[in-house]
Specification:
alpha+beta, disordered N terminus, 7 helices, five-stranded mixed sheet, two-stranded parallel sheet
């Protein structure tokens, strides 16, 4: 969040929120999904960034002196700041619960489709789609809403689909220590739809496996059947 340099932060919706903010967790002692680190941008820097955006938009042809566009550079920066909030972490992920039932290492929990929006790190254009997460509990379980939080933690930043899926799989495996983890992502990429080849109907699908899923083709098949049918077992 933008910072005024004196311990207060600018609420990008307008006004001030009293500081100081909670200190970030030491990144050297945590894995990436555990790190909670609010971003700070000084007022002077924020205004300088607005000037840069104005110059770029004006050079591209936007008339910045109309009622609808005078605040566009500021709105653009706020939108980009919000769309990359995954860099700040999510402290509500830091909770898992004991598994009170004796589950087989072949019983899966599958959640999806979890909608996500991300920014391609190559062109800073959005890609969006659905995620399906599966895991086979061991000694821990996790609230289903945390799976949505985990997806959005890694989606709300500059990334690529391959790295995003791998990060989700590794983080869930680290958090839960389950028998296995499966991740299925399907997304449309505006960097191929509105520029370049302009392929309007293409969709990219990626899968990631950890633990028992890597070894058991039947589990992978069951998971993929659930994901591809929208979570409804055929």
């Amino acid at each position: 969040m933008p910072n005024d340099g004196d311990g207060d932060v600018i609420d990008i919706r307008g006004g001030l929120i009293p500081g100081p903010l909670r200190q970030a967790t030491d990144p050297e002692e945590t894995t990436e999904w555990e790190q909670v680190s609010p971003r700070h941008i000084d007022v002077a820097d924020w205004e300088r960034f607005e000037t840069y955006v104005s110059e770029i938009f004006g050079a591209f042809g936007m008339d910045l002196d109309t009622p609808g566009t005078r605040e566009t550079p500021n709105r653009f920066l706020k939108a980009m700041f919000d769309a990359t909030s995954g860099y700040e972490g999510d402290e509500k992920l830091l909770t898992a619960f004991p598994n009170e039932s004796a589950e087989s290492e072949y019983n899966q929990v599958v959640e999806g489709g979890i909608s996500f929006y991300a920014l391609c790190e190559h062109h800073a254009l959005p890609f969006h789609g659905s995620a399906y997460l599966g895991y086979i509990p061991n000694e821990r379980i996790i609230g289903l809403s945390k799976l949505t939080r985990l997806v959005r933690l890694f989606a709300r930043r500059f990334t690529v689909q391959e790295w995003m899926g791998r990060s989700i799989a590794d983080a869930l495996f680290d958090l839960m220590e389950p028998h296995g983890v499966a991740v299925y992502l399907e997304a449309e990429h505006l960097c191929t739809q509105m520029r370049g080849v302009r392929e309007e109907h293409s969709q990219t699908v990626t899968t990631f496996w950890r633990g028992t899923y890597e070894e058991n083709a039947d589990l992978r098949r069951e998971f993929l059947d659930l994901a591809r049918s929208g979570g409804q077992k055929p």
